[in-house]
Amino acid sequence: MSTPPPPGYRKVPSPLWPFEPHDVMFDVAPEALRDTRLFWVFFWPALSLLTGMTALYFATTLNAFGLAPGEINHDAVFRSYYALLMASQIGFLWWFASWLNTRHLAVAVFDIRPARFGIETGYGLVLFGMSFVFAIAAVDVLLPLLPIPDVPTPDRFNGGGLTGTLLVAASVIIFAPLVEEIILRGWLLPKLAARMGGWVWPILLSAGGFGLMHILVDIPTMIYATVLGVFAGLARRLTGRLWAPVVLHFVNNLVASLSF
Domain total for the chain? Predict the structure, then answer.
C-alpha cells in the first residue's frame, strides 16, 4: 500500500493523469474514470440529495395521513425522517457500489481506510480547524450582501426523545460524512480531476456541489458547507485518500450537533 511522501518530496502529477502514486486512484485504469458519460458524473450526487428529500416526504406523509395539521405528532415525524434517511442512504450506497463494481471502480471510490492513520487524521483535524474559521467568516461577510428574508430555521437536530437523539447521532454524525464524502470526494472530485487534468477547478466544483446539497437547510448552511467542501477537497488531494475528509466532516457534524 503506497503512502503519502514526506513534505517536499511530492511527485508533480501529469496533466494527463493527475493522481500521485499514493493516491487510491493512481492504479485505476484511466479509461475507467474518463469514459463515463457526463450524465453519470453528476447523476449520483444528485440522487444522493434526492434520498434526503424523499425520506422527508415519506416521513411527513406517513405520519400526517388522515390527520389535521394540529394532530400531527412531530416527534414521530422526526424519528421517521432520520430512520428513513439512513435506510435510503444504505440502499443508495448499495446501488452505487453495484454500479461502480461493473466499471471496476468500487474499491477505489469506497476505500476510506487511511494509509497513515496519524498523519491523515491530523490532516483532517487541522483542515477542519481552518475550514471552521474561514466558513464562519464567509457566512458573516456574504450573508449581509444577499437579499434573504429573515425566516426562522427549523430545528433539525432536536426532537423524538431518546430514540430521535440516537437516530440523529447515527445519521448526521456517522452516515452523512460517509455518504457525502464517498459521493463528492471519492467519486465526483477524482472524476472531474481525471477529465480536467488538474485539481483547482474540480475542488471548487465539488465544493459547490456540496454547498448545493445543503441549500434546503438554509443559505448560511449552504455558504458554510461550500467553504467546508473546499477544505475537504484539499484533504483528499493532499492525502490521496478519503480518511482525512471523513474525519474533517465527522468532526464538523459532531460540533454542529452538540451546538444544538
Answer: 1
Q: Give domain status of residue 223, yes or no.
A: yes
**pLDDT at residue 14 greater than cutoff 70:** no
Q: What is the pTM for the complete model shown?
A: 0.86
Q: What angle do CA 162, 165, 171 make, to 5 degrees?
A: 140
In a domain, residue 224? The reply is yes
What end-to-end distance do the CA atoms of the chain give, in Å?
Answer: 41
Overall residue count recorded for the chain in this entry: 260
DSSP string, 98-149: HHHHTTT-HHHHH----SSHHHHHHHHHHHHHHHHHHHHHHHHHHGGGS---
Q: Is residue 17 part of a domain?
A: no
Q: Is residue 11 one of the residues assigned to a domain?
A: no
Q: Which domain holds residue 66?
A: 30-145+154-259
Pairwise CA distance, residues 167 & 16, whole Å: 44
Task: Write the CA distances from 20 to 54, 146, 217, 240, integer angstroms.
Answer: 38, 40, 36, 8
pLDDT one-digit tens code per residue, 36-87? 677 888 899 989 888 888 887 887 787 776 565 666 667 777 788 888 888 9
Percent of the chain with pLDDT strictly greater than 90? 46
Residue in the structure block whose three cell numbers are 491530523: 122
Q: Which grid cell is 45?
A: 450526487
